[in-house]
Design goal:
By secondary structure, the chain is α+β, with helices and mostly antiparallel strands. 22% of the residues lie in helices and 32% in strands. It has a four-stranded antiparallel beta sheet, covered by helices on one side. The chain is globular.
Amino acid sequence: GNNLYQVQALTPIDELNEKFDSDLSDADYDTVGGLLLAEFGRVPEFDEVMTLADRFEFRVIKADNRRIITLELNVLET
């Protein structure tokens, strides 16, 4: 769909913010994967979902036992 994107976990948060005119904090974490690891509090498994800022729904589509690799991003209508 128009609001679905595939995002690498190593994508810098500032790039995501620039692309989607958002303001996710990059004060503590540099990458989308780092931010999501902190939000989950652990390494998430395949198909787990996290919503951030009531606008971004991230679904894990590839991870190993130490890190998130690839995400599906659904930009929610606000």
